[in-house]
From TrEMBL, chain A:
Record protein name field: UVR domain-containing protein
Limits of the UVR domain: 135-170
Single biological process term from Gene Ontology: stress response to cadmium ion
Source organism: Paenibacillus lautus (Bacillus lautus)
Superkingdom of the organism of origin: Bacteria
SUPFAM superfamilies, alphabetized: C-terminal UvrC-binding domain of UvrB (SSF46600)
One of the record's GO molecular function terms: cadmium ion binding
PROSITE patterns recorded: UVR (PS50151)
A Pfam family reported for this protein in Swiss-Prot or TrEMBL: UVR
Automatic annotation (TrEMBL), chain B:
The organism's place on the tree of life at top rank: Bacteria
Organism: Paenibacillus lautus (Bacillus lautus)
Protein name: Protein-arginine kinase
Broadest EC class assigned to this enzyme: transferase
Gene name in the database record: mcsB
EC number annotated for this UniProt entry: 2.7.14.1
Length: 174, 354
């Protein structure tokens, strides 16, 4: 979500202001909040998370609607659930998990701005995350292999190398 | 269904306990968002598809062995309870407003002590939430991930090698993990250090939510600190980051309280006592004033300035003074001014001053 003030930096301070029972949400980056001298300005009307997010996903930042990138994005569509990229950018929500695949090219910049990172490094489900678990196992074994070679433990190194090959074969098959 | 026992009492079992640092951290919440493979997210799911999600997720409960540690689990379908009960579940933080209002085939699974609530067909198919008293970030995560493991052993989650757990909203993708602590920071507000501290917090990947009234003071001096990032960090990095930052804020609040006691004990005592007096005898009390007075009294009790209600009673009042609960207690269809009257009455009765 972007800061509602500058529209550039991610908003990290969120406030709900209640005046006469009416709720208003504010979203600021740290810099703008500080520049305001206080955290809460008393202005502005309703601002929803979704509209902020859709600002972030805006198809055409130039506002001219003519750039080739924007044109391509308009025709992007998830073949699984039918959601178009332009719908996604308005709703700020994916329709199904395949949307991640069909919109993939456009997601890195978005994730970079929202999260700083673009790749998952956390927990992996045993049932559907098999490949990534094997991949991580291989990476670990490769590090181990390097250590063994440096320490001239060649017999163990050979065993580890075989394990890596076996795992890589499994991955290629499945 | 008229007899929903989870909405009879404002006090969840978990609120009776005092967690670590519960004079400053009210509660800790951790949730993980998950979705089933090959089914559209609730936003686009048909009735039949969301029904299938509900059925497959509740089927997991039949596997009793894995769930023994969690005690009895109660499945509540939102279509089967009335609007007021929904409202009360929201006020107790057991379900989200989103689930109460919009969800098709929405349901919640609650543990006996109400510390775990599993929402089905909210924004994501599955949201596992653990709510603990006091400062228990690690404990709450341990419980949430253990429950996640149970579901994971029976269900194929939507998961991608690169993006991790796939969620409806791009802000949850990756770990699907949102961890937060609700902190009561009156001394940092009074000593005007709060802005500086909240700004610092926002620079380390955390976000702050506060509720403000008409003035510049936070309503009830309550601030929720939670992680902003869900993609590109491991769960333990997220948990430990929140843990260590919250610890530092606790430390700052403690120092500010000590300073207040040292420099302006009489002024603080007066403020606390006045608030306690007003809560004890007022005939009309709006929600904003209630939040502020309750904050003062909580601080007074924490600082030993007042032999007042214990923390569970204060937690109970925070929930009970909200609109849904007031109507549950005193009857539906109140006007706002009637609500203010009943709120005052309820506070007087809870404090034993009638
Ligand atoms: Zn800004
Ligand atoms: Zn899709």
């Amino acid at each position: 979500m972007l800061c509602q003030e500058c529209g550039k930096r991610p908003a990290t301070l969120h406030f709900t202001k209640i005046v006469n029972g009416e709720k208003t949400e504010f979203h600021f980056c740290e810099t703008c909040a500080r520049e305001k001298g206080e955290l809460i300005p008393g202005t502005s009307n309703g601002f929803s998370i979704h509209s902020l997010l859709s600002g972030l996903l805006d198809l055409d930042p130039s506002g001219k609607g003519q750039s080739p990138g924007a044109k391509m994005a308009q025709t992007l569509q998830c073949e699984e659930c039918g959601m178009t990229y332009s719908q996604f950018s308005k709703l700020g929500r994916f329709g199904c998990s395949s949307c991640y695949k069909y919109f993939s090219d456009r997601l890195d910049p978005l994730f970079k701005r929202v999260h700083g990172g673009t790749s998952h490094v956390g927990k992996v489900p045993k049932r559907t995350g098999g490949r990534i678990q094997i991949k991580r196992q291989i990476d670990d074994l490769k590090k181990e292999l390097q250590i063994r070679i440096v320490q001239e433990e060649f017999e163990t190194a050979a065993e580890i190398r075989d394990q890596i090959r076996e795992l890589e074969r499994n991955m290629a098959q499945g | 269904m008229s007899n929903l026992r989870f909405t009879d009492s404002a006090l969840s079992e978990w609120m009776r306990g005092n967690g670590q640092d519960s004079d400053i951290v009210i509660s800790t919440r951790v949730r993980v968002a998950r979705n089933l493979q090959h089914l559209p997210f609730p936003l686009l799911a048909t009735d039949q598809q969301s029904g299938e999600v509900l059925e497959r997720l509740t089927d997991v409960l039949k596997n009793k062995d894995d769930l023994q540690d969690f005690g009895d689990l109660h499945v509540i379908k939102l279509s089967e309870i009335d609007e007021l009960d929904k409202k009360v579940l929201v006020e107790k933080h057991l379900i989200s407003p989103n689930l109460a209002n919009e969800s098709r085939n929405g349901a919640v699974i609650l543990t006996e002590d109400e510390s775990v609530s599993i929402m089905i067909n909210e924004e994501d198919h599955l949201r596992i939430q653990c709510l603990y008293p006091g400062f228990q970030v690690r404990e709450a995560w341990a419980r949430a991930t253990a429950l996640d493991d149970v579901f994971e052993s029976e269900i194929d989650y939507a998961f991608d090698d690169k993006r991790g757990y796939l969620t409806s909203c791009p802000t949850n993708v990756g770990t699907g993990l949102r961890a937060s602590v609700m902190m009561h920071l009156p001394a940092l507000v009074m000593t005007q250090q709060i802005n500086r501290i909240l700004s610092a917090v926002s620079q380390v990947g955390l976000t702050v939510r506060g509720i403000y009234g008409e003035g510049s003071e936070a309503l009830g001096n309550l601030f929720q600190i939670s992680n902003q990032i869900t993609l590109g960090q491991t769960e333990s990095e997220i948990i430990e980051n929140l843990h260590s930052v919250a610890l530092q804020i606790i430390e700052h609040e403690k120092n500010a309280r000590a300073r207040l006691l040292g420099e302006s004990k009489l002024r603080i005592t007066d403020r606390v006592m006045r608030s306690y007096g007003i809560l004890s005898y007022a005939a009309v009390m709006d929600s904003k004033e209630a939040a502020q007075r309750l904050s003062d009294v909580r601080l007074g009790v924490d600082l030993g300035l007042l032999e007042g209600p214990e923390i569970p009673v204060m937690n109970e009042l925070n929930v009970k003074t909200q609109p849904g609960f007031l109507q549950k207690t005193y009857g539906e269809g109140m006007t706002p001014s009637e609500r203010d009257m009943y709120r005052a009455k309820l506070i007087r009765e809870t404090l034993g001053t009638h």
